[in-house]
Amino acid sequence: MNVGENIRHKREQAGLTQAYVAEKAGVTQAMLCQIERGTKNPSLQLGAEIAKILNCSLESLLMDAGF
């Protein structure tokens, strides 16, 4: 899995929408969608913010993502 797939998986497990996570992280839903599809990578700061929203560690989002 890449980081975007990890984010999508954990977001869906938490029952959260893209719109909710994007709003809380301070990015557009389109940006979050691109991250989840793997066409964009989040900055470390954004990754940490998304991890906080998803109640997981940044490391868990990066696992098997090639980082």
What key phrases describe this protein's structure?
single chain, mainly alpha, 434 Repressor (Amino-terminal Domain), 5 helices, 64% helix, globular
**Mean pLDDT score:** 94
- Under CATH, the topology is which? 434 Repressor (Amino-terminal Domain)
Indicate the structural class.
mainly alpha
Kindly give the count of domains: 1
Number of strands: 0
> What is the overall shape?
globular
C-alpha end-to-end distance: 11 Å
Please tally the helical runs, counting DSSP H or I stretches of 4 or more residues. 5
> Which range does the strand content fall in?
under 5%
CATH class: Mainly Alpha
CATH architecture: Orthogonal Bundle
Descriptive account of the structure:
The protein is mostly helical and 67 residues long. The chain has one domain (3-56): Orthogonal Bundle (434 Repressor (Amino-terminal Domain)), CATH 1.10.260. 64% of the residues lie in helices and 0% in strands. The protein is built from five helices and no strands. It has helices at residues 3-13, 18-25, 29-37, 44-53, 58-62. The longest helix has 11 residues, at 3-13. The N and C termini lie close together (11 Å). The mean pLDDT is 94.
